Amino acid sequence: MSGETLHVYFLGTAGALPTPQRNPSCIMIRRGSDTLLFDCGEGAQQQMMRSRCGFLVNAVFISHWHADHFLGLFGLIQTMSFNGRTEPLTIYGPQWVHDFVAILQQVARFNLKFSLEPVELGQGSWVRFDGYTITAFLTKHGLPSLGYILEEDPRPGRFNREKAVALGVPPGPLFGRLQRGDSIRLEVGDEAREIRPEQVMGPPRPGRKIVYTGDTRAIHMNIREIAHDPDLLIHDATYDESEAERGLEFYHATAAQAGEAASVLNARTLVLVHTSSRYPDAQSHINDAKKKFSGPVIAPSDLDMIEVTFRDEI
Ligand SMILES: [Zn+2]
Ligand SMILES: [Zn+2]
């Protein structure tokens, strides 16, 4: 059972200042037919065009109200309006999201045919979607700020065909009923039998999980309970070790701290983002992170995409 597709597009990987190669923060996650934006820095809509994913965004999650994380919303909403959008657009964010949306509409005079719906989230707030949940957690960035966890519902266990046949279940529609969780009755010789799903299904298997920290100092010890075992940990890695002091001062993490987080949280893959424009490339960041984390470390370029697979299907 492969489930829905799950793709992460890195539309903006820069730190607070864009560079000719990197846009400010924007991550787009597509799961099946759902499209979610996590932060929406300046130029996000052109990056969406370049990624050829369209503008059918179901919801936007903003991590905090620094301009490198939200300025792209102005243009994106304008374009959605030109494109004839009528479905409401929910904008989730930390404290001040209502103020932000009110100011956005006041300043831009959009004349929209759809409503903008601000929803404030806090520590542990969650939003249900079909088949998965987005949960917010507080980060440490010197102002109200959130990270987000996308976690899929567990999947049913594997169907044991041989066992079903041994119990007398004929291959065919009854297999499907057992796989969907129904008990079935059947005659085996003179005996009437009830077969329950748990007799032929393995234990539930975890879905996929993505953690995005937004901007933050090291916080992994605070989020172990809810952010453990992510398939992808997308972590603030603004500075390398030579500027760890600056990280503390400006409420950002170093790549080494991101590596520690990946180890503590038992991440499958670590993704370093929000790299400061002072570095010509992210090699020192990758080296720093690898000293603390033995798994794969990626520092994506803008427009890179990662497909997230199930752990048990590698
Ligand atoms: Zn930022
Ligand atoms: Zn920030």
Task: Write a brief structural summary.
It is built from ten helices and 16 strands.
Structure description:
There is one protein chain. With about 325 residues, this protein is α/β, with parallel strands linked by helices. It folds into two domains: about 5-155 and about 205-314, Metallo-beta-lactamase, Chain A, CATH 3.60.15.10; about 160-200, no CATH class. The chain is built from ten helices and 16 strands. The strands form three sheets. A seven-stranded mixed sheet has the order 6-5-4-3-2-1-16, covered by helices on one side. A seven-stranded mixed sheet has the order 7-8-9-12-13-14-15, covered by helices on one side. The model has no long low-confidence stretch (mean pLDDT about 95). The protein binds zinc ion (2 copies). The site of one zinc ion has 4 residues, from loops.
